[in-house]
Design a protein that fits this description.
This protein is α+β, with helices and mostly antiparallel strands. The protein is built from 5 helices and 8 strands; from the N terminus they run αβαβββαβαββαβ. Strand 3 and strand 4 form a beta hairpin.
């Protein structure tokens, strides 16, 4: 009988001890959620970190704007209305659209808080701050300039230096941004550098036409089908 009492007492003590240890063990810390992309809700200008899926074919201006909007949303700036800096030509019954007329009034700042331009006039003057050190994408990373092994300084614009559309006699917009094969689109040098020391090589929006409209041709001359995106409101 005494042996049964002692056995029962030991069992009870072990249960109490186990319960005490369990009660004193802190709960496991839940794993932190995976970090999302960097957020830049105050930016009003960026260069796209990626091109579209089909070279210069964005499905027209609306598709290009949606590309800007989607990337801005991932970076926490989706509440703004974003526009691609692109012109279209008066061909096939379409009305010409000037890039400068669709991007708002400014001022515009990049993800690092650097003001690129105070107004449309400032943007299209020698005073704008588009330069190698300000070529920031929506995720805060620099776009590779001509100083890098991989050069992506060609930015699609389809635009003349003053921000206006080209006349309709020659395709300079890859069929108003609907072609991904033959055709041409004007590009600008975002790093303001080229093969020559002339105005065209240093132009951010009107340096030279692309070889064609497919992705491989855009890459061949130092691009990646990237766009300038501006907050229009």
């Amino acid at each position: 009988m005494q042996r049964l009492i002692r056995t029962t007492g030991i069992a009870i003590a072990l249960c109490v001890l186990a319960g005490s240890v369990q009660a004193q063990t802190p709960p496991a810390t839940p794993a932190a959620p995976p970090a999302g992309p960097p957020q830049f809700p105050n930016m009003t200008f960026f260069i796209t970190s990626t091109g579209g899926p089909s070279g210069a074919n964005f499905g027209g201006l609306d598709g290009a704007d949606k590309h800007c909007q989607a990337l801005a949303a991932k970076a926490g700036a989706g509440s703004k209305t974003w526009r691609a800096y692109l012109s279209t030509q008066a061909v096939g019954g379409a009305t010409a659209v000037n890039a400068k007329d669709r991007i708002g009034k400014g001022p515009w700042v990049n993800a690092k808080g650097v003001q690129i331009a105070a107004s449309v006039a400032d943007l299209h003057s020698a005073n704008n701050k588009i330069a190698p050190e300000t070529l920031v994408s929506e995720n805060g990373r620099l776009i590779p300039s001509r100083l890098y092994t991989v050069n992506q300084h060609d930015i699609l614009t389809g635009t003349q230096a003053d921000g206006t559309a080209f006349p309709p006699d020659k395709d300079m917009t890859c069929g108003n941004w609907t072609k991904s094969g033959e055709g041409n689109a004007m590009v600008g040098h975002a790093d303001r550098m080229g093969l020559r020391d002339d105005d065209a090589s240093k132009s951010w929006n009107a340096s030279h036409p692309s070889r064609a409209c497919d992705a491989a041709s855009l890459v061949a001359t130092g691009g990646a089908g990237l766009l300038y995106c501006f907050a229009a409101d």
